[in-house]
Amino acid sequence: MKLEQDTETYLLNSIRRFFAEEMEMDIGDLKAARILDFFVEEMGPSIYNQAIVDAQAFFSEKVADLAGVHNPAEFNYWKKR
Predict the structure, then answer these.
(1) Span 1-59, pLDDT tens digits
(2) Which of 1, 30, 37, 2 is nearest to 16 (CA)?
(3) Sign of CA dihedral 56, 62, 68, 74
(4) How many angstroms separate the CA atoms of 16 and 38, rounded?
C-alpha cells in the first residue's frame, strides 16, 4: 500500500513525536520510516479488510431499507380525475 505523501509525512512526524513523548526516546527519520513501513505492511491489510466488512454491512443495511421505501404510484395523474 502506498500512502499519499502528505499522509506519510504526517505519520512519520507522529511516530517520532510518540517515541519522544511516550517512550522518552528520540528516533530519526529512518527508524520512523521503518516503523511506519512495518505497521502498514503488518496491520494495514487487517484494518483495510475490516473497513471493507464494515462498509459492506453498512451498505447492505441501507439496501435492505429500500424494500420498505414507498413511492407514490406512477402515472397516477389521470386516475385521480
Answers:
(1) 889 999 999 999 999 999 999 999 999 999 999 999 999 999 999 999 999 999 999 99
(2) 30
(3) negative
(4) 15
DSSP state of 79: G
Question: What single letter denotes the amino acid at residue 39?
Answer: F
How is residue 18 written as a grid cell? 510518540
Cα distance between residue 37 and residue 41, in whole Å: 6
Q: Which amino acid is at 55?
A: A
The answer to whether the CB of 49 falls within 8 A of the CB of 56 is no
pTM above 0.85? no
47 Cβ partners below 8 Å, 6+ apart?
A: none
Distance, CA of 28 to CA of 7 (rounded, Å)? 18
